[in-house]
Specification:
By secondary structure, the chain is mostly beta strands. The protein is built from one helix and 28 strands. The longest helix has 16 residues.
């Protein structure tokens, strides 16, 4: 195999010299191939010479780029040489675009080819407009199957969708978008808790700031529900009745030190005091929610349903509740483990500063059992009961133990670094 340097000539759009990076490419036949560029453009080459280009995937942010291309496959080969070649592109903007490429007539200059976007009906589809919405709409892979009239889409947010396409003159070319699969997609997954009454159901939480409920039957493996978290999470737990999930927030990725984090915080607080930043109470950093926890109510009827799009869990309280650390808050308070007592009346949190803090679950009430008074929809924070601060290092795991002879007495055992 021999390589040749590409020739852009005067066909290269101006102003994108710094983004001339190839992200993907496919062959179109007869010496033509199409390339997706970091700038969001699509370049068409004949052999090693650029013959035409088109703007495809643009974004209001700095994240642009045509990330994926695929030639339409069909079970029936076309016998008309004048029929256009069809392909699909996907980009960082979440757009799916259908394209037509017309080869030049026999004997004509290769530059006489034509590339245009399908317009009648519109050949664009935005993933950000579907439900459930992708966690990260950047498209990393597309596949257009003409025999099935379907497009398979894979996103950076670890979702896989199918979209049906039509060839008639209807108002829309895209029908019935369906989520096939969704999973964690960023860094690490630490939190894992099995349902106390249904062994085939479990919950996971991770550094992608999501809580997910899964069904793991051999013939029915799917994500049942997803919740957005305010920060990365390393621990979650079910209440013994299976109706509640509690998630502890905080964590570390890589070798970033606490000192560097504190420098960043001090710099931010200094800006706030000088009136150059946001309000002092703003929480835009994941670290600001270290030592907080979130509560979610889980409907039991979701476990018996067939395959469907996952449900979105809403937090029990509008804002995460901060642990009452009792003494001056330390520099490493992310929650490492969460456990409920066997009777469900106490929930315990372990933190990386060496403390275990106990809370009462009396205020965790379903919508049907909400107390009135100051408003039937008002939800009170959990009440702190006690501290266990004898550990000399970070508490990594905790559990409850109970003696049969003492049904009303619990013991807490911990592991540390």
């Amino acid at each position: 195999m021999k390589s040749k340097k590409g020739i852009l000539g005067d066909k290269c759009p101006s102003g994108i010299k710094k983004k001339l990076v190839f992200l993907t490419a496919i062959g179109l036949g007869q010496g033509y191939f199409v390339a997706g560029m970091l700038s969001g453009h699509i370049f068409v080459f004949h052999k090693n010479k650029l013959v035409t280009s088109a703007e495809a995937h643009k974004s209001s942010t700095s994240k642009t780029g045509c990330q994926a291309l695929h030639l339409k496959t069909s079970g029936h080969a076309s016998t008309n040489p004048n029929d256009p070649i069809l392909f699909v592109s996907g980009g960082n903007d979440g757009q799916i675009i259908l394209w037509e490429f017309h080869l030049p007539q026999k004997g004509e200059d290769p530059e006489k080819c034509k590339l245009k976007e399908m317009t009648k009906p519109a050949g664009r589809f935005n993933l950000q407009g579907i439900s459930p919405r992708p966690k990260d709409h950047c498209i990393k892979s597309v596949c257009w199957d003409g025999s099935l009239n379907k497009i398979l889409v894979g996103t950076k947010g670890s979702e896989a969708y199918t979209i049906t396409t039509t060839d008639d003159d209807s108002k829309t070319r895209f029908l019935d978008p369906k989520l096939l699969f969704s999973g964690h997609y960023k860094d690490e997954v630490w939190g894992l808790a099995t349902h106390p009454l249904r062994p085939e159901v479990l919950a996971t939480c991770g550094d992608d700031k999501t809580l997910r409920v899964w069904k793991t039957d051999p013939d029915d493996h799917q994500c049942l529900a997803v919740a957005e978290l305010k920060g990365m999470s390393r621990a979650c737990a079910w209440k013994p009745d299976g109706q509640w999930l509690v998630v502890g927030l905080g964590g570390r990725v890589g070798r970033r030190t606490i000192r560097n984090r504190n420098k960043k915080k001090n710099k931010k607080n200094k800006k706030n005091k000088n009136g150059k930043g946001g309000s002092k109470g703003d929480m835009n950093e994941d670290e600001d929610y270290e030592g907080h926890f979130m509560i979610f109510e889980v409907k039991q009827d979701m476990f018996d349903s067939g395959h469907k799009d996952y449900e979105v869990l809403t937090p029990y309280m509008d804002k995460p509740q901060e642990l009452n650390f009792g003494r001056k808050k330390g520099n490493n308070n992310w929650i490492s483990d969460v456990k409920f007592s066997p009777n469900g009346e106490i929930v315990a949190f372990s933190a990386h500063d060496g403390q275990v803090i106990l809370y009462s679950t009396a205020n965790m009430k379903t919508n049907a059992n909400q107390r009135g008074g100051r408003g039937s929809g008002e939800r009170e924070e959990l009440q702190c009961l006690a501290y266990c601060n004898k550990s000399s290092s970070a508490v990594t795991h905790l559990d409850f133990a109970q003696r049969p002879s003492e049904p009303n007495k619990f013991y807490i055992q911990t592991n540390g670094k």
